[in-house]
Structures are given as structure tokens and as C-alpha cells.
């Protein structure tokens, strides 16, 4: 059954596990508190979880507003335990964590002022070690790739950039004066940087178009670090798709996706060509990556969405109205541009008392029923009903002269 983790503005970390009821639309939550809140100074800004095949299944990391970060181990019946804690001294007032990721026994964190940190968790007989690096400032979002070989970031006047993870932490020699002058060129890649996007051409008035990336995500895993596909949400509400093999400028620029104050969150769905987008208002949309069209939106949201988490056949969201919501999802239609017959809806909601700031799926594929399974069950039930009906021969039909047979359930 699907499980999600949430963090809130007072520092609480909770697990929300769902089990399905008797119908496809009936889901029951089981909430477990991993850590109690300790005030707004400890507000959770980012969560990360180890995936199923990483070798550290059951670990959760939380980064907080005061610069502290914690790694939990799920443990046994005694409940979760703290594995490691540290403080990011480079996090200044007015800055925040914009990225957190768990890959194998490595924990990556990044702040809005470019403080990048790698924490190598110790094992039996080995101690925990730390490496740091520096990225540009004014970063709004940071993501580690599915393979962990690269990471990407973007921000306020910070173009989308892809880095080699290992090279980002490699020791760097002191640059000469001549090298420093060369690096001041805007198109010069930094040490460890693989690719950097190029801004769009000037607008119709020959004015430079501002760059303000507010959310981003990798679209699919790649074995080659230089071949990546990414999606970036902009402050003006546009969504841009990038392919590092093709060009530095976006291969698609879908305008007006975010209706209120730009894009706040982007999460790739598990279905092909599926991505979920939330603006800074009360809107969540399912987007078809083949044409950039909105397949459907979710109704009944009354609070500004703060975070999204996509799982198999389900979507979780948390909002400023203090609700955790579980949504159904349906894959895009087979033919591009055809009408979406089935649309997602809110299946359940839980009042959380404090404003949740982040939500993440535990990454474990369970036996939750997907929309296809639900449809199959419906078809099987229909077949059973027809099989249960008694056959009516031609003579009976003629005798009844058009009278309809009533089927009782």
C-alpha cells in the first residue's frame, strides 16, 4: 500500500500509509509521527527518502529552516531512530534548503545561496564523512538525477544547469588571473558543469527575457551524463522542456500552464508522458508531455499547494489550508491530442493541524490498485452479470412481443 512522508512548518515529520477499502475510491490513512515539532525555527523545508533498490531502504532525511538536517532509520517495532544529524553553517538568514536527496549511503543537500554538501553515512567500522562545494547563488530548485550521476538546478536569473556529481566535489586548483578573466564569460562552464541552458531570444521589443526558474525535474533516467531531459517551471507560469543533446535553448516552451503566480511544483508521473504541475495558487494539472496540453485538473482545492508527490496510480498533495490530499490519476490517452476520457479526483483528505511544507513518496511499489486494475475489475463484474442472466430464446422473445426483461441485483 502507498506510503508518503510529510513535514510541516513546526518541524513535525509524519508517515501517511494508505490502504484501499472495498471500492476503488475508498482509501483509509494510517498516520504515524516520526518526530514531533519543535517550533517554526525547525520548520521542515525538504524531505528525501531512499528508494527500494538503493541499499538503504527505510531511511528518511529532513532538512530544516535553522540549517539542521536529520537522517532517520525506520527501524523495527521500536519505531524510527536518528542515524545522523548535522548543521549547515553556510545557510544564512533569509536563505533556505532548495534540494535534498538520498542515493545509496550518500545524502546530498543544497541551499538557495549555493551551499552544496555531500554527507557519506558511515557503516559498520567506518565513520561518517562530509564534502562541500559551492554553486551560484539565488537557486530556487535543485534535483539529483535518478542515477545519481548528475544534478541540476535553476533559479532567479540562474539558467538551468546540469553538473557531474562526482566532479562537483572534486578538489580544484587555484585559478590564475588569466583563467579568472576567461571564466567571467557568461558561456564559460564551471568546473564540474556539463551543460548550461541559453536564454530565449529577445522579445518583440528586442528586450531581454528574464529567467526565473521556480521548479524543475528530470524526465527519465539516462546512462550518459551529457544526455538528459528536464522540465522547468517558470515564474511567469510557463513550462519549458530541455534536451541537452539537442540544444541549449528549450525544445518546447508551453505558455500559461500556471494560472496563479507561476509554477510551484513539478513531479514526473510514473505513467509514460505524464507529469503533474502545481502553480502557487490552488491548481494542480496533469500535463501531456507529447504536446504540452493539460489533460485534466483537480477540483475542490481550497488552499495554495505547497508540494506534490507522485506514486503508482496516485498523487499526494499538501496545501496551505492544512490538508493532505490523495488524488487518483489516469495516464494520457494513447493517441496524441485525443480527449482524456477519465480524469483524476480527490480520493481522501486529512487535516494536519499545522501547515505542511513538503510531501514525498517512499518510492516502494506495492500492490496498490491502479486505474487500469480498477477498470479491469469493472469489466469482469460486468461479464459476471451478463453470464448470470438467463438466456432468452427466440420463441420467448416473440411471445413477449418486445417486452423488456428486468434484471434485479
Which key phrases capture this entry?
409 residues, mainly beta, Methylamine Dehydrogenase, Chain H, 4-stranded antiparallel beta sheet, 4 helices, 28 strands, disordered C terminus
Structural write-up:
The chain has helices at residues 165-168, 177-183, 371-388, 394-400; strands at residues 3-8, 13-20, 27-35, 44-49, 59-64, 68-73, 81-87, 97-103, 106-111, 115-120, 129-134, 139-144, 150-155, 158-164, 193-196, 213-218, 229-234, 239-243, 252-254, 263-268, 274-279, 284-288, 293-297, 305-310, 314-319, 323-328, 346-351, 356-361. It has 409 residues and is mainly β. The protein has a single domain (3-369), classed as 7 Propeller (Methylamine Dehydrogenase, Chain H). The strands form seven sheets. A four-stranded antiparallel beta sheet has the order 3-2-1-28, with no helix packed on it. A hairpin with a 6-residue loop joins strand 2 and strand 3 (27-35). The two termini are 31 Å apart.
- Tell me roughly what share of residues is in helical segments: under 10%
CATH fold call: Methylamine Dehydrogenase, Chain H
The CATH superfamily is identified as YVTN repeat-like/Quinoprotein amine dehydrogenase
Any idea how many domains? Answer: 1
Amino acid at each position: 500500500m502507498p506510503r508518503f512522508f510529510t513535514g510541516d512548518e513546526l518541524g513535525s515529520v509524519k508517515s501517511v500509509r494508505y490502504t484501499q477499502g472495498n471500492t476503488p475510491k475508498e482509501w483509509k490513512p494510517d498516520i504515524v509521527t516520526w518526530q514531533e515539532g519543535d517550533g517554526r525555527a525547525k520548520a521542515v523545508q525538504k524531505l528525501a527518502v531512499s528508494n527500494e533498490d538503493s541499499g538503504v531502504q527505510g531511511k528518511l532525511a529532513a532538512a530544516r529552516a535553522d540549517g539542521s538536517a536529520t537522517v532517520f532509520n525506520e527501524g523495527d517495532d521500536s519505531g524510527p531512530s536518528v542515524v545522523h544529524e548535522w548543521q549547515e553553517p553556510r545557510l544564512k538568514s533569509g536563505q533556505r534548503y532548495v534540494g535534498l536527496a538520498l542515493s545509496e549511503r550518500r545524502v546530498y543537500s543544497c541551499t538557495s545561496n549555493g551551499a552544496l554538501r555531500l554527507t557519506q553515512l558511515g557503516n559498520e567500522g567506518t565513520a561518517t564523512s562530509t564534502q562541500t562545494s559551492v554553486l551560484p547563488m539565488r537557486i530556487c530548485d535543485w534535483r539529483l538525477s535518478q542515477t545519481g550521476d548528475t544534478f541540476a538546478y535553476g533559479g532567479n536569473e540562474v539558467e538551468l544547469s546540469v553538473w557531474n556529481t562526482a566532479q562537483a566535489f572534486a578538489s580544484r586548483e587555484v585559478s590564475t588571473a588569466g583563467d579568472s578573466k576567461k571564466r567571467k564569460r557568461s558561456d564559460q562552464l564551471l568546473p564540474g558543469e556539463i551543460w548550461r541552458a541559453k536564454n530565449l531570444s529577445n522579445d518583440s521589443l528586442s528586450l531581454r527575457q528574464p529567467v526565473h526558474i521556480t521548479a524543475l525535474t528530470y524526465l527519465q533516467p539516462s546512462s550518459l551524463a551529457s544526455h538528459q531531459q528536464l522540465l522547468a517551471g517558470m515564474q511567469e507560469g510557463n513550462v519549458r522542456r530541455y534536451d541537452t543533446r539537442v540544444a541549449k535553448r528549450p525544445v518546447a516552451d508551453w505558455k500559461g500552464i500556471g494560472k496563479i503566480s507561476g509554477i510551484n511544483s513539478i513531479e514526473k508521473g510514473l505513467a509514460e508522458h505524464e507529469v503533474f504541475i502545481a502553480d502557487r495558487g490552488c491548481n494542480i494539472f496533469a500535463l501531456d508531455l507529447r504536446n504540452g496540453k493539460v489533460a485534466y485538473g483537480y477540483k475542490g482545492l481550497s488552499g495554495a499547494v505547497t508540494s506534490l508527490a507522485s506514486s503508482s496510480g496516485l498523487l499526494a498533495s499538501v496545501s496551505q489550508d492544512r490538508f493532505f490530499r490523495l488524488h487518483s490519476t489516469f495516464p494520457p490517452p494513447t493517441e496524441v491530442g485525443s480527449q482524456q476520457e477519465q480524469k483524476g479526483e480527490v480520493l481522501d483528505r486529512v487535516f494536519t493541524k499545522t501547515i505542511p511544507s513538503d510531501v514525498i513518496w517512499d518510492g516502494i511499489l506495492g500492490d496498490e490498485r491502479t486505474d487500469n486494475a480498477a477498470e479491469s475489475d469493472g469489466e469482469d463484474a460486468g461479464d459476471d452479470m451478463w453470464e448470470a442472466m438467463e438466456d432468452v430464446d427466440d420463441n420467448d422473445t416473440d411471445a413477449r412481443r418486445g417486452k423488456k426483461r428486468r434484471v434485479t441485483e
